[in-house]
């Protein structure tokens, strides 16, 4: 799969102001579970499909989907992949399991309730890890990054598709106005690249803006 590099972000944004913890996430997604597909599922569909296409185009069979949610991405993986999905929300996972059963999705090896910042997988267990719309949800994004690096083998790939805060303009103001509601929303509207990536880490990455209107970004990092 070929990625096209965009100009790297300047990395001058602050980390999110209102820290989430695991209980905040579980509570928020207990509320969101029943309406997630009909609400956020639609606006994120194009970016999600692009991430799945990217995974399908990479070498390697074993895929970890961190933050699998209701399993919206699961039908898109090619038969050659074997996918393990994890999520902190039992309510979201119930819907993912129903989706897998009803659609008989054979690529899914397991769906497990697990903290993506501290999994029980072995070092280098996966060829690819993909985190869709989860980096701005976890309490400690850099711990997520470190854990994905640990469980992906050297030579593998780590992909993120996520909303990252604008650097200026009306969206900048809107995202910061929404930031105090992070706990209720279950995600950080003012989530910055700096919150996830250490200085210099994006130098080896490919970065692609995603529709609609560049609201999401697909980042691929070699392991």
Quick description:
With 223 residues, this protein is an alpha/beta fold. It has helices at residues 22-32, 40-43, 45-56, 90-103, 141-151, 169-178, 182-185, 193-196, and strands at 62-66, 82-87, 108-113, 126-132, 152-163, 206-210, 216-222. It is 31% helix and 22% strand.
CATH topology grouping: Rossmann fold
Number of strands: 7
**Mass-distribution shape:** globular
Assigned CATH architecture: 3-Layer(aba) Sandwich
Q: Which stretches are poorly predicted, pLDDT < 50 over at least 5 residues? A: 4-8, 10-18, 171-188
Could you give the order of strands across the largest sheet?
3-2-1-4-5-7-6
Estimated structural class: alpha/beta
Average pLDDT taken over every residue? 81
Give structural notes.
With 223 residues, the protein is of the alpha/beta class. It has a single domain (22-222), classed as Vaccinia Virus protein VP39 (Rossmann fold), CATH 3.40.50. 31% of the residues lie in helices and 22% in strands. The protein has eight helices and seven strands. A seven-stranded mixed sheet has the order 3-2-1-4-5-7-6. It is globular and about 45 Å long. The two termini are 15 Å apart.
